[in-house]
Design goal:
With 164 residues, the chain is of the alpha/beta class. It is built from 5 helices and 8 strands; from the N terminus they run αβαββαβαβββαβ.
Length: 164
């Protein structure tokens, strides 16, 4: 089966990083029968708690892209994120669809933690660490992959942070 180019790029990035799932097997992007545009829909599709979904949210942080991987169980506190970055809260805002596509090559609802045209600074929600298995988007809204918290931090070169 021919994979969507974004999914193939994501799988290639996972393979190159040697990313492993909770059971120790290589991370494999899974194609779902329907798009999952919310954490609740993704959780239902793979049969896990909504908190196990690592939402990939792109912010415009003073003109630069910032990827915040946050638990599907809560919302990002923009004030906390701005403080972590050392910039004014007004300079951190949810990115437009165009900004997201420009910096990730992907659409909102399917943004993956990897496989972007250039590396994107990444914060990883420490609340995700409580789960043995996480699921993240695989490059399009109907793709996901399993990963552990430690692997997610490692493969994204992300900074663990309190973002909620």
């Amino acid at each position: 089966m021919q994979l969507h180019p974004n999914v193939q790029a994501m799988q290639d990035a996972l393979d190159a990083a040697g990313a492993r799932a909770a059971d120790g097997t290589p991370c494999q992007v899974k194609i779902l029968t329907e798009a999952v545009h919310t954490a609740a829909a993704a959780a239902a599709a793979v049969g896990v708690e909504v908190g196990q979904i690592a939402n990939s949210l792109i912010f415009d942080a003073d003109g630069d892209p910032l990827l915040v991987l946050t638990s599907g169980a809560h919302r990002v506190d923009v004030g906390k994120v701005a403080a972590l970055l050392g910039i004014a809260k007004s300079r951190v805002r949810r990115a437009s669809a165009e900004f997201v596509r420009e910096h990730t090559g992907q659409v909102i609802g399917g943004v993956s933690p990897l496989a972007h045209p250039k590396p994107v600074r990444t914060l990883v929600d420490v609340d995700l660490a409580q789960y043995g298995e996480l699921w993240a988007a695989g490059g399009i809204p109907q793709s996901v992959f399993p990963v552990t918290y430690d692997e997610l931090v490692r493969i994204t070169d992300g900074t663990p942070a309190e973002v909620a």
